[in-house]
Amino acid sequence: MIHSLFLINASGDIFLEKHWKSVVSRSVCDYFFEAQERASEPENVPPVIPTPHHYLISVLRHRIYFVAVIQSEVPPLFVIEFLHRVVDTFQDYFGVCTEAAIKDNVVVVYELLEEMLDNGFPLATESNILKELIKPPTILRTMVNTITGSTNVGEQLPTGQLSVVPWRRTGVKYTNNEAYFDVVEEIDAIIDKSGSTITAEIQGVIDACVKLTGMPDLTLSFMNPRLLDDVSFHPCVRFKRWEAERILSFIPPDGNFRLLSYHVSSQNLVAIPVYVKHNITFREGSSQGRFDLTLGPKQTMGKAVEAVLVSSQLPRGVLNANLNASQGTYTFDPVTKMLTWDVGKINPQKLPSLKGSMNLQAGASKPDENPTINIQLKIQQMAISGLKVNRLDMYGEKYKPFKGIKYMTKAGKFQVRT
Amino acid sequence: DTWISTQKKIHSQLSLPVYPLQENRQFGSKMTDSKYFTTTKKGEIFELKAELNSDKKEKKKEAVKKVIASMTVGKDVSALFPDVVNCMQTDNLELKKLVYLYLMNYAKSQPDMAIMAVNTFVKDCEDPNPLIRALAVRTMGCIRVDKITEYLCEPLRKCLKDEDPYVRKTAAVCVAKLHDINAQLVEDQGFLDTLKDLISDSNPMVVANAVAALSEIAESHPNSNLLDLNPQTINKLLTALNECTEWGQIFILDCLANYTPRDDRESQSICERVTPRLSHANSAVVLSAVKVLMKFMEMLPKDLDYYGTLLKKLAPPLVTLLSAEPELQYVALRNINLIVQRRPEILKHEMKVFFVKYNDPIYVKLEKLDIMIRLASQANIAQVLAELKEYATEVDVDFVRKAVRAIGRCAIKVEQSAERCVSTLLDLIQTKVNYVVQEAIVVIKDIFRKYPNKYESVIATLCENLDSLDEPEARAAMIWIVGEYAERIDNADELLESFLEGFHDESTQVQLQLLTAIVKLFLKKPTETQELVQQVLSLATQDSDNPDLRDRGYIYWRLLSTDPVAAKEVVLAEKPLISEETDLIEPTLLEELICHIGTLASVYHKPPSAFVEGSRGVQHKRLPGSAGSGESVESPDPGAAATETPPAVIPSQGDLLGDLLNLDLTPTTTTGPPPPTTSGMQMGAMDLLSGGLDSLMGDESEPLGGDIGGNPAMGAAFGAAPATMPASFNAPGSGGLDDLFDLGGGVGMPMGALNPPKAVWLPAMKAKGLEISGVFVRRAGVIQMEMTLTNKAMSVMTDFAIQFNRNSFGLAPAGPLQILTPLSPNQSIEPLNNLQVAVKNNIDVFYFSCQYPISMLFVEDGKMERQVFLATWKDIPNDNESQFQIKDCHLNSDAASNKLQSSNIFTIAKRTVEGQDMLYQSMKLTNGIWVLAELRVQAGNPNYTVSSISLKCRAPEVSQCVFQNYEAVLKN
């Protein structure tokens, strides 16, 4: 099982270590540093690194490497999933997961890690339960504790931990009972030179914020559940009911949680929200290159495309770029060769464009690679897969809750080749 | 915006105005733990000590917090041990927990002090609050001090039976902790049985933890049968699976995977209950479920509807794993690589999800590329090629290289696409990007090997890039191409000559290739290139220190000078085609790895026994049921067993094998098709076996014509064309991929008198799918080792080579014969006629041993002159005479004599004394040892009976073997 955990910052300092079994010397991280040196980019450090006596399994989040040390055969995904859970918990507790935040709360961090694993076995990883065991630090509570001498460690056995619904604490009470759901879809796509789609898929999630008194039992149904053939559920969802009726039936955890995530594969037809007209060329023997880019909305069901951000890694030989943006601003970083254009909202009547020239190093030959264009965007009130919630019902409690559903589409890894 | 982000915004807006900015900052510095990091002055420890002993609760707690903070950053605060332990007796839970944290860290270094804490632990284990009880038993288990563990036993026993499941589940893990510290104690105290009982607990979390603890303990006791899985326990596990936490599900699924269902119905019912786990949000649960399904699926009949349903259900979760974070993707991809090899049908329509995104980390890109090739088929090849071409223009050099190589692999795998691949590669060569060109040339060479005489028109383009090649592999590939197609390249001699200038600076790979290429050129255009070949031969034989190069040079030289026709046959022999996929994992290993999906083994594609330190003697897991593994090969043909001693497979690390291990074998390539060097080397090795060469090797040697084969190049090297290559058998269900290398010993050769059936020498189980059965015969004066090499694996085997270990009669593939030396004690265990053989192919080197009948060694000129016989008989001391009885052999002397004659045992004289026929016989062994025999034949009624035999020989060790041979021949 998981032996130890080291947290390493971007400059290669180990700023926290935690051992669940015997102490493993820090020097084991030297193997990690070696791998780090070999990697061209921070994210290229391989996630599983063998050393003579241990294995290092790491994830990189918020520019911090979370390096777990294991000694015997342990499923690597188990370790990686656990590390993700650690990151999520830190974020949940401290708002951000940074070196400063972790150092500021080092004792809470330590208490949390101790609570999350016992001898390398996961113990309590549900945020609901952890919060009952260890109260998240807030300025107010710290002040109150200082004055009254009370502590931020719960005195009682976390009740949820042993019930049939371990994800929900008992005795929840709210004056305003609310249940809100966000359907957020990210579209990943690769578009080739000519504008045709090579691959496009949608990663969708339904995040929920449920603040309901007592033990509510919810059902959520969809207009078009057939879209959801590849889903991962929160443990609260009753799988049998879904299999039989395509209805989500569950007793929700208290607070924020991810109800389900789904994947609409490239085999279904995926709508592409924007198109890009581009002409990025270098001529042989000339030190100039042309850059010409125009964006336009495609299949958006009439909704506005907002927060558009275009970025592209230009070839190494490019010295600078003289461009003219019809809207928004662009920047070119001559060191990283990253061109970023903050477009904003696309106006279908007046399409945004970025045109101009690029200068190459004198005497440099024509670059071999073609830059890829990366696009970020947001579309409100639409799930691009067409998924629509039909209705939400509550059983088991008498009151009438406020309900709300919002849709949003974002670009995930949306790449246009040139 | 979404609900959740708005909510966060409101939250932060609310909190801001409450505290004015300045005050806030003040609070910030005072109220956070970062203050603990600031004190680094010298008297720190002293100050902390004072604070820890303070009367004020609050001060105490703050002090412990400071101590913990120092500890987390690696400062040594062990000096405060007694002071911190003093704070343990408290009703403040947070303070208690903090002290426990400290204890766990430092108890090991202060064992005597740690005893002080024992009482508090024991007391806490009786606390009415189950949280305290659990905390105490949990912490105690983490204190790795022997003295403390003794005190732990009683509280632990109570906690294992606690009324509160939270305490029980904590105690279950504690047993594993204790086992890690003192395994004997755990066994003596009977904790393992209690733990086994907990598998039937009513609470699913307790069950999951018990399973996890038992699995961990079982890892260090591979044969202990701790997790005794039977249908009842399986049912309990499956029930708990639905209700426990995600982590518990992983433990239970991993445990289920070790179970072998009794029949396909049980298998199906388990699969049905595991399938819902595929929709779990935790990817580790998903992959563990995939493992269980992949394993149990083996037992389902393929025509079952459910089998098809299950196959369909497996694809979506695997695809979903690929949209997760890159670290998860990496592990998923390594596993998918295995799954695709075992069951390509699952993901055959999902090619697109493996397309590379330009900002994927490099380790994800390389894995995706690998799987793309595995999934490439005629249906999707156009798309794949377009993608690969795109990748070949990316920035990352490693990735670009692999992409170019992948194009070549596509050409080899999907014949219909070969032309398009070649033209894509040519386009890439036109880019003149150095490493792209070199990589392209290496793969084009493989394409030539796969499709000879089809794409040679591109050679001109390749030759244009000759100067830009600076990597050995690319240079070697180019030289191979020039040599192979020398007759079509007008200036081949000039091209090769240009390489010759810097001969000594080239790597061995290039040197060997250059040598072979120039010899090929010479054989094709002898008139103009005599000088060139002289030059390269002298460079190779006289100026080089490399034994491989020298040997190959000498062989060519001798070959060219003695028999140019034979040289042509050897050097320009037709090469075997290269196989489609060379980097497939060997099937038995693949089966094992499928059983380990989701583990480190699956990430490294190595069996767990190969690398996991913690696992002492891991059992090899096998897939159950009806896989095409051809178990029948294990039992040799009963007929063969009657005449031959069953072969013993030599343990791979035996001392005797020293010689074999030094075999000069070319490194086996794991990626990409074998480069032509391999074939060159292999031909070199085979040359040694050639019967025509023995005159070069000294006359005292007896060539052993080993019929290995299935491969025309070798056939040519033997000078005897392969008689037949019948595909006569298939292991059941192995998909028709079995290649059969069966070379009869030539047509129309006189059959020896003794011709026992072949025996299995090397079962396929032990040689990664290569089965060797064989027999020794002597035909037309040549000892022949007839072998049937059967490929029971799923991939094609190539690059065969053979070598014998040193043996009693110096049998070697045309090596010099050794004079029989006195037997060392080590050898006497083995029968004299034991032969240890190494056979090599592209997968590995395999060792086995077999026995050959000694009659093989009897040469044709073994008839002694009478005078000599008499003199020799007298000359050999009587000590060297051995007598044997032959029973139940009814032959008269003439019949016996005839029979023996055909085995090269010659009768020199016959005498009849008192109704007994005495036959005097002689035979000569290959190494010049004479054996003299006196055979007595009783002329009784009604039948004649061969009764006894005396053997005289200067090397009495052989007598036993010779006698056995007599018996075999006479009774046959």
Structural notes for this entry:
The complex is a heterodimer of chains A (418) and B (972). By secondary structure, chain A is of the alpha+beta class. In chain A, 17% of the residues lie in helices and 42% in strands. Chain A is built from seven helices and 23 strands. In chain A, a hairpin with a 2-residue loop joins strand 4 (55-61) and strand 5 (64-70). The radius of gyration of chain A is 25 Å and the shape is globular. The model of chain A has no long low-confidence stretch (mean pLDDT 86). By secondary structure, chain B is an alpha+beta fold. Chain B has 43 helices and 13 strands. In chain B, strands 1, 2, 3, 4 and 5 form a five-stranded mixed beta sheet that branches. A five-stranded antiparallel beta sheet of chain B has the order 9-13-12-11-10, with helices on both faces. Chain B has a three-stranded antiparallel beta sheet with strand order 6-7-8. Chain B is extended and about 115 Å long. Classes of the chains: A alpha+beta (418), B alpha+beta (972). Chains A and B meet through strand 2, strand 4, helix 2, helix 3 and helix 4 of A and helix 1, helix 2, helix 5, helix 7 and helix 10 of B. Chain A: It is found in: Golgi apparatus; Cytoplasmic vesicle membrane. Chain A: Pfam families: Adap_comp_sub (PF00928), Clat_adaptor_s (PF01217). Chain A: Keywords: Cytoplasmic vesicle, Golgi apparatus, Membrane, Protein transport, Transport. Chain A: Its main location: Golgi. Chain A: This is AP-3 complex subunit mu-2. Chain B: It comes from Gasterosteus aculeatus aculeatus (three-spined stickleback).
